[in-house]
Specification:
Blueprint (H helix, E strand, L loop, with lengths): L3 E4 L4 H13 L4 E4 L10 H6 L7 E3 L5 E3 L1 H12 L10 H30 L8 H17 L13 H16 L8 H11 L2 H4 L2 H14 L10
Helix pairs in contact: 1-3, 1-6, 4-5, 4-6, 6-9
GO molecular function: glutathione transferase activity
Protein name: Glutathione S-transferase 1-1-like Protein
InterPro entries: Glutathione-S-Trfase_C-like, Glutathione-S-Trfase_C_sf, Glutathione_S-Trfase, Glutathione_S-Trfase_N, GST_C, Thioredoxin-like_sf
């Protein structure tokens, strides 16, 4: 039996896991967890994951893993034919880990706060103090790409999957300026051309529609 992934297609962390699985040729049984239905706090799901977060992976033998970064690393360790997506070399892996932690603790953290204020608190605009940390993080990403093609070096890694999933969501509400961030835009476009990105496009568009439906302000032309 295939592993089961509890997920929401619009969620950036879930999309990152789906991208990794696609790259590895891994198929899931996908089970939707919808927060507006309180699926994440239902007794049966909390038994699986007491932290009641998504994505959550239940492997074929019943092993349970959550946090997108942990799941991606696990999938690579179990299914990859080589270590290119998550290098064994300790220095290369440290760089990948740093990018993953940056995505989790900075970019996704601030993007989630914005999304929650719109979807849960009913706000129809984004405060300038909510935007500023994300704009600062874009400068850091541009710096990451100063001497490399991908976020953690010159090879595609799970750090790219994690970051592009969040950056796609950021771009929906705070369009990335190609003049200020040319390397970031070039990387973003390259990621969007990956076959594994394509399988997450519908979920990304659903997330964008949910956010933009609540916003009553014009953000100008988005980078498509």
């Amino acid at each position: 039996m295939a592993p089961t992934l509890y997920m929401l297609p619009a969620s950036p962390p879930c999309r990152a896991v789906v991208m990794t699985a696609k790259a590895l040729g891994v198929e899931f049984v996908e089970k939707g967890i919808y927060f507006f239905r309180d699926d994440n706090v239902k007794k049966e799901f909390c038994k699986i994951n007491p932290q009641h977060t998504i994505p959550t992976l239940v492997d074929e033998d019943g092993s349970v893993f959550w946090d997108s970064h942990a799941i991606m690393a696990y999938l690579v360790a179990k299914y990859a034919k080589n270590d290119s997506l998550y290098p064994q070399d300790i220095k290369k892996r440290a760089i990948v880990n740093q990018r993953l932690f940056f995505e989790s603790s900075v970019i996704f953290f601030h993007m989630k706060n914005i999304a929650c204020s719109i979807l849960l608190d009913g706000k129809n605009f984004i405060e300038s103090e909510e935007k500023e940390p994300l704009l600062e993080s874009l400068k850091v990403l541009e710096k990451f790409l100063e001497d490399s093609e991908w976020m953690a070096g010159n090879s595609l890694t799970i750090a790219d999957y994690s970051l592009v999933s969040s950056i796609a969501s950021v771009n929906n509400v705070i369009p990335i300026d190609p003049e200020k961030y040319p390397k970031l835009i070039a990387w973003f476009q390259k990621c969007k051309e990956l076959p594994e990105y394509e399988v997450t496009r519908k979920g990304q568009e659903e997330g964008a529609a949910m956010l933009n439906a609540r916003l009553n302000m014009s953000f100008g032309k988005k980078y498509q």
